[in-house]
Amino acid sequence: MNIWLAAATVLLAATAPLGWLAFRRSPADGIVAIELAGIVVALAMLAIAEGTNRQPFGDLALILAALSFGGSLVFARFLELGERDE
Fold it and tell me: Under 8 Å CB-to-CB from 70, ≥6 apart: which residues?
């Protein structure tokens, strides 16, 4: 195991508290936790790509970063629409 894979392990372990926050807090706090988790997982995938010398993992991390940001925006929009109906 090299330093890049150790960094990826630490980053992935850091997503557990974010999942707990997303589950236990308000939806607005959950969106922030999910957005941060997307960033952390994308960084972990970049560390895995560097640690294993496999470029496709780097491409996948870039796609994950873009889609997690877009997904969070769509989720926030649905929450906003749900609050208007109540």
Answer: none
Residue 41's pLDDT is 93
The tens digit of pLDDT for each residue in 30-43 reads 888 888 999 999 99
Taking 70 as the threshold, does the pLDDT of residue 86 lie above it? no
Say what the pLDDT of residue 77 is. Answer: 82
The enclosing H or E element of 79 equals helix 55-85
CA distance 80 to 86: 10
Given a contact cutoff of 8 angstroms between Cβ atoms, the answer to whether 12 and 59 are in contact is no
Cβ-based neighbours of 27, under 8 Å, separated by 6 or more: 79
At a CB cut-off of 8 Å and minimum separation 6, what does 50 contact?
4, 58
